[in-house]
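Q: Here's a chain of 171 amino acids. Please give me its 3D structure as tokens.
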Amino acid sequence: MNIQVFDTITAQNVSAQIEKANAKDMPLKKDNWQFTWRSLYKTEGAEFYKLILTDSPADVQGVLMLTLMNDEMLYMNNVEIAPHNYGSEGRYEHVAGCLIAYACLKSFELGKNHYKGFLTFESKTALITLYQNKYGAEPALGQRMFIPKENGKELITKYLGEDISPKIPFQ
């Protein structure tokens, strides 16, 4: 999937892609990533996606891990942006937003019954407010959160592009 991220150094949008990731794409904890992606990659039934720049596909800008719970509800196990994209000093903006929006898109494709279009995940306590304010997530129980289908549609449009929304069955 072709998308755009914002380069804070050049102040321009740059072409990027979200695509399925394989074991060799998994970033290493020794490179300051927070998760042990290589170990997580061994999780049975999980799907992994990477966000890369079109001009430098070897440099992973973010990684997403998804599983289908109870064969009907999409769960975002992990999402992480590359260390050089952290915070206000980060190089590329919208990496997390694009990956979360992609997870919402997948929830419309893979979710079943009344879970179609809903994305659920566990949040770190410090990120709960961010997920609520920036991505429209709602609290469920404890640190469990979800993004309802209406808010997911907005994220898909905002981060993945207007042309994606008409192709999704939002019923």
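Q: Can you summarize the key feature?
A: The chain has a mean pLDDT of 93.
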